[in-house]
Design goal:
By secondary structure, the protein is an all-alpha fold. The chain is 77% helix and 0% strand. Helix 5 runs antiparallel to helix 6.
Length: 234
Amino acid sequence: MPFPVPTLGPLGPADLSALIVLVLAWLWIGWLTEHPPAHRPSVGKLMEGYRREWMRQFVTRSPRLFDGQMVDGLRQSSTFFASTALIAIGGGLALIGNPEQLTNLAQEFALASGPRLLWETRILTAVLFGANAFLKFVWSHRLFSYASIAMAAVPNDPGDPQVYARAEQAARLNINAAKNFNRGLRSVYFALASLAWLLGPWVLLAAALFTAGMLWRREFASSARRALLENPPH
């Protein structure tokens, strides 16, 4: 008696397998980036050291206008990406409400076909990644606001017994904000990869693996990483 091939509603075996690979690739690269091997730190992990060094230098810098401008720029970046993600979510939901447009487009260009529910699932996958990105960017913006307040609480006197403890608190908030910002970016990358599903499950599989490989290279084998390793903070 042959073993039954698993399906999930409109998803056939190929669609289901590609979707699982997409989600696993997203989770894997996110975990590896934030928990890299000790002998091969990721760019994100290296930047944590630089952010702590930033706060140590912040203690003795006067005036502190540069630091305020830096945090303001980081907050603006998170605001921009959050707004972009929200627009993309709205567009995706509009397509789910009227998937016939994509169905007609698929017929014209000989794209992957399927029932209406399958098209809605394909679009909803991208929307969910976009929604996760939006939430991460919003929380990142909030954490950068907390970090700016913590920085303002760092005493101007380097001899104050609380100065470096306050600076470490600000650094941790800054690191957490950046970590959520990077999570949002990864969700954006995989939202774009999920759009390859419109071309079929095998294209989605290739896009998921390509996206994971690209993010791995940027975190572990890029010229930016080599530059950060040349003279890392201690």
